[in-house]
UniProtKB/TrEMBL annotation:
Residues passing through the membrane, by range: none
Organism of derivation: Frondihabitans cladoniiphilus
Keywords (A to Z) from UniProt: Menaquinone biosynthesis, Methyltransferase, S-adenosyl-L-methionine, Transferase
Protein name: Demethylmenaquinone methyltransferase
Protein's gene: menG
Pfam families from the UniProt entry: Ubie_methyltran
Superkingdom per UniProt: Bacteria
Gene Ontology BP, a term: methylation
Enzyme Commission code(s) on record: 2.1.1.163
């Protein structure tokens, strides 16, 4: 699967990530010009995990972010739909619990986690609004949601340059650094087609979250979104179907 406008069936996307698992972290560091580490630091800070809390890290990949969150003393569950990613993650991060699972059908009960986070994974979900509803469901009342995702730079000049990078530079670099360069062509297309910051904020509110806010990282190339499940638990409003 190389086209981002295809229906993103979980088994197809998982297979794609299986093929890049071994060198995924190194390739990401190169393609992000080192910014991936800075984005991870910002995400972990936003989660603000405390000792004894339970945190769900969705689209955890090989567990690099999960391990960073776990340094707080929180119990972290790393979930990814790529068995290949999970296999590599279990070897690299033996202290973290890894689970193969689908963000649209989280294998957990209601109100289980103090925080839920997903970094650079929501745009790869076939039905992101369904995934947001699932995140809301598994969070405890008062629980925190943190999403780090590629976004739309607000400055026109930077936006044009970034689009050129995605179309031309990223595929060229991935041919050298990755064992599966077509997968990175898909990733570039998925970034281009992903909605801007305000739209994702609307989706998060539609899933029932309050205190929704975002801030741009690296001039809007990435955005960090946050929300809270109401302390009373409340009822999730009916959301519009995914496009």
């Amino acid at each position: 699967m190389t086209k981002a406008d295809m229906n993103k069936q979980p088994n197809e996307v998982a297979s794609m990530f299986d093929g890049v698992a071994a060198h995924y972290d190194v390739t990401n560091d190169i393609l992000s010009a080192g910014n991936a580490k800075l984005w991870r630091i910002a995400t972990v800070k936003a989660i603000d995990a405390k000792p004894g809390e339970r945190v769900l890290d969705i689209a955890a990949g090989t567990g690099t972010s999960s391990a960073a969150i776990a340094k707080s003393g929180a119990e972290v569950v790393a979930l990814d739909f790529s068995a290949g990613m999970v296999e590599v993650g279990r070897k690299r991060q033996p202290a973290i619990e890894f689970i193969v699972g689908d963000a649209e059908k989280l294998p957990f009960g209601d109100d289980e986690f103090d925080a839920v986070t997903i970094s650079f994974g929501l745009r790869n979900v076939n039905k992101p609004k369904t995934a947001l509803a699932e995140m809301f469901r598994v969070l405890k009342p008062g629980g925190r949601l943190v999403i780090c995702e590629f976004s739309t730079p607000p400055m026109a000049g930077l936006r044009f340059g970034y689009q050129a990078y995605l179309k031309h530079v990223l595929p060229a670099i991935s041919k050298i650094t990755s064992s599966n360069s077509p997968a990175y062509s898909y990733l570039a297309e998925s970034i281009e087609k992903w909605p801007e910051q305000q739209v994702l904020s609307q989706w998060i509110r539609g899933a029932g979250f309050t205190r929704v806010a975002h801030r741009n990282l690296t001039a809007g190339i990435v955005a960090l979104h946050r929300g809270r499940k109401p302390a009373s638990g409340g009822r999730r409003p009916s959301s519009a179907p995914d496009a």
